[in-house]
């Protein structure tokens, strides 16, 4: 039945606004890109979970993963994944952990002292 | 004798007689002339009638010829119009597809910016509707839909269709089936379902739900669309039935103004790809029920992505965590707090059980109100789980939305 005029269609089959159900998206204040998420212990997959939620469930069940990584694996926009994660989090299925804070810059002199000390120990 | 001749009465009589003779003669002449004239006229009439009959026959021949020519011209014009439209729509289809692909990239690129993402989604939504229209017209003009490279689960087909209509948020998709539509039928089924959903949302009150239920049947899979509208009158039903089982190419100029392409598109695609579409039965909500039945040869058993993901869900569904509110494990349970704020526990009689049923009986012996409500909750929970498991005849676990 194929004719030369029939072209392949490559756009995403299920559009992202259907996945979100047209709901308004949460802001990045709740779940930053680098926020780490994992599955809370002894949780069961909600009955009405769609394919995307199931995929998230499997991804985060193995340990902490950042929001950005989850979005990358699912090949979905971060905002969409953030909404799904917010839902799961509101139902108590997720443990969230803010990314480790950036270390305060230790001044150069201290580092040099440590380095010198180590060299004197080893050398 | 003289008296007779002199009698004026006699003369009068003679004069009258003469006048009468003259009148009779005159009348006879006139009569003959009239008769001749009548004969002439009758002959003329016969000739004219013959002529008229001849002309009628000629007119009939000409008009038959004319009708035939007109039909030919119409068919040619229709074919020419369709060819032009098909080509033009093909261009629009390509552009719409290009835009969707572009938006896929943009949605991911600006995914972290909530405002931009929401705006892009509304652009995407409009683009999807535009693409559906272009595809519909193209199909009616003999054009082709795009072809997907992979099969798609029935749930995703329904959601893709949902995304192509205006009021998509009113649509709920419920699927108990984990089966996929073969790649060549993915777009056709999605387009037909989108047309049915468009009808369902347009002909029912705003805010009322439109449900898509996907059911496995012995001969394939059914997409059942129910709305809560006013239903269809007999005329609309007849029109729909005629368009849904087309016996010849659809006349696109006969679809009204503004044209109603929906059923014509459904009929064309169903006939071309070999699935069935029917409308006209009454939905449980009082509106229209439309059904697409996809036969087995357009289905594939594999589910592209969700298959591996589903495993943990199935294993854990009957797991005892859901019974957690009921004190199943442990020799005692909390019945309140002491005055010091510590939890007050009550010893459980009999052996500790991990099964739900004996445990449900045990608190009844205690006679306290708290366990009784817990038992009720547990029973209702167990009943709900039981009915869900019972309704779910596949081994994959329920995946209704």
UniProtKB/TrEMBL annotation, chain A:
InterPro entries: DUF742 (IPR007995). Pfam families: DUF742 (PF05331). This is DUF742 domain-containing protein. It comes from Streptomyces monashensis.
């Amino acid at each position: 039945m194929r004719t030369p005029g029939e072209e392949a269609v490559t756009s995403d089959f299920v559009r992202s606004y259907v996945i979100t159900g047209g709901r308004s998206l949460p802001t990045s204040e709740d779940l930053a890109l680098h926020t780490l998420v994992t599955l809370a212990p002894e949780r069961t997959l909600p009955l009405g979970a769609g394919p995307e939620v199931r995929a998230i469930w499997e991804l985060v069940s193995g340990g902490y993963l950042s929001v950005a990584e989850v979005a990358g694996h699912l090949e979905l926009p971060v905002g969409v994944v953030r909404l799904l994660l917010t839902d799961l989090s509101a139902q108590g299925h997720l443990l969230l952990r803010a990314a480790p804070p950036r270390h305060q810059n230790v001044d150069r002199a201290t580092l040099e002292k440590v380095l010198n000390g180590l060299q004197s120990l080893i050398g | 004798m003289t008296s007779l001749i002199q009698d004026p009465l006699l003369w009068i009589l003679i004069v009258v007689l003469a006048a009468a003779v003259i009148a009779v003669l005159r009348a006879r002449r006139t009569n003959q002339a009239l008769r001749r004239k009548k004969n002439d006229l009758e002959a003329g009439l016969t000739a004219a009638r013959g002529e008229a009959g001849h002309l009628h026959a000629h007119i009939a021949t000409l008009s038959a010829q004319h009708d035939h020519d007109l039909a030919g011209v119409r068919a040619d014009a229709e074919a020419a119009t369709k060819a032009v439209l098909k080509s033009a729509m093909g261009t629009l289809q390509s552009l719409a597809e290009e835009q969707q692909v572009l938006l896929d990239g943009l949605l991911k690129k600006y995914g972290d910016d909530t405002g931009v993402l929401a705006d892009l989604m509304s652009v995407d939504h409009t683009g999807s509707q535009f693409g559906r229209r272009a595809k519909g017209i193209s199909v009616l003009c003999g054009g082709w839909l795009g072809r997907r490279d992979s099969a798609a689960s029935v749930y995703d087909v329904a959601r893709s269709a949902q995304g192509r209509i205006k009021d998509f948020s009113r649509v709920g998709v419920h699927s108990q089936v984990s089966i996929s539509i073969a790649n060549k039928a993915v777009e056709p089924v999605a387009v037909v379902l989108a047309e049915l959903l468009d009808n369902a949302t347009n002909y029912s009150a705003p805010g009322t739900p439109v449900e898509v239920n996907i059911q496995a049947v012995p001969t394939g899979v059914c997409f059942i669309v129910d709305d809560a509208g006013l239903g269809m009158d007999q005329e609309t039903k007849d029109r729909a039935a005629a368009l849904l089982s087309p016996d010849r190419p659809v006349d696109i100029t006969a679809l009204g103004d503004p044209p109603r392409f929906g059923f014509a598109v459904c009929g064309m695609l169903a006939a071309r790809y070999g699935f069935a579409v029917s409308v006209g039965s009454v939905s449980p909500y009082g509106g229209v029920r439309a059904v697409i039945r996809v036969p087995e040869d357009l289905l594939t058993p594999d589910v592209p992505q969700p298959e591996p993901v589903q495993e943990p869900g199935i294993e854990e569904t009957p797991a005892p965590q859901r019974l957690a509110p009921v004190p199943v494990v442990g020799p005692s349970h909390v019945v309140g707090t002491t005055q010091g704020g510590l939890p007050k526990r009550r010893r459980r009689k009999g052996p500790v059980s991990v099964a739900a049923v004996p445990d449900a009986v045990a608190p009844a012996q205690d006679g306290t109100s708290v366990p009784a409500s817990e038992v009720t909750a547990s029973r209702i929970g167990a009943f709900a789980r039981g009915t869900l498991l019972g309704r779910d005849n596949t081994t994959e676990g329920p995946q209704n939305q």
